[in-house]
Amino acid sequence: MSDDLRKSAITDEIARSVWSQKGSKALPRTGTLSVFSEDSFATANDEMIGENLRDVEGSNSMTFDELESRDMKVILRGRLKAFERGQIKYRKPRHATCGCADEADFAAKLYCLRKAFKIIQDDDQKMHCLIQSGRTLIADLLRNDSKDPGAFYLAYDRMMQFLLNEENRPKMEMEMKLRKVEEINLWDVLFDFVVMDAFDDLKKPPSAIVALVTNSWFSKSMKESTLNNLIWSMIKAKRSRLQILDGFISHFYDISQIVTSSLTMGLLGGGTAEFEEICIYFKDNLFAFIADIYNTNKVRYTDARVLSEDVQKLLTERIEVMKVKLSNELVPPIPV
């Protein structure tokens, strides 16, 4: 086995083990979007029954241009002082999930990754490809569960129209501030706020959900119907607390209402064996990508542009392998 394949296999195994850890200390809840967060489930239930880092002089006031022109490894070392002063803000410490040595290591790398993701976001062509890839992946995931993705397409496209309209930027900034999301970028919003929070809650779902999904006496259609009703009630409860009724979070809930049932059945053991395998593969690749971008053996923390190139390359590779897997495993269409 080549070194690259061996490293990839190790990364994937770490991602799987981190996600499946039992009894791990729960991260603090800071305005999670997840449908299965404890607060929304309770409401719905009522209705339904690295190395030592050293200070670098002037590191706390470094501008984006300076970041690009200086050695990022030096900047990584300089982030510790800013971390100790509480100047690198984030919602949750993700060092364990990201494979970092400690919280300071996570914060230092996060600082640099935010700059790298900004470069990716500023490239319209790359963002268009990412948006289309996300649309394709989730649609194929639904098709593998014998679901028509039509409603998902409509909800996803409406959310993208909202996000791409610069006039909505102040509204989204206000929403994210209320949820303690520090910056609007792919890491803070997509990976941390949306993806990781959702899978965090699927690691420890409400016992009633587990009992429903794993009950061998219920048919798949009965499980799905009951689960969809419960999800609808949970989202209704969350919507009732929104301060901005037509913002990003509202659009995200539209998508959640369509996708959550399939993902829950697939990851908790209520779907077919084939679909469960696909959902686990999907989840493992997301977490492996997250581990990769915090791994100095996978990406180069030399300057922001080089880091952005490595992050983009890893993201593209993961997306392509997931596309192939999901499209190749598509079940035959249901006869009309």
TrEMBL record:
Similarity field: Belongs to the mitoguardin family.
Pfam families xref list: Miga
GO CC, any one term: mitochondrial outer membrane
Cited InterPro entries: Miga
Protein name: Uncharacterized protein
GO biological process: mitochondrial fusion
Localization in the cell: Mitochondrion outer membrane
Primary location: mitochondrion
Keyword annotations from UniProtKB, A to Z: Membrane, Mitochondrion, Mitochondrion outer membrane, Transmembrane, Transmembrane helix
Organism: Ditylenchus dipsaci
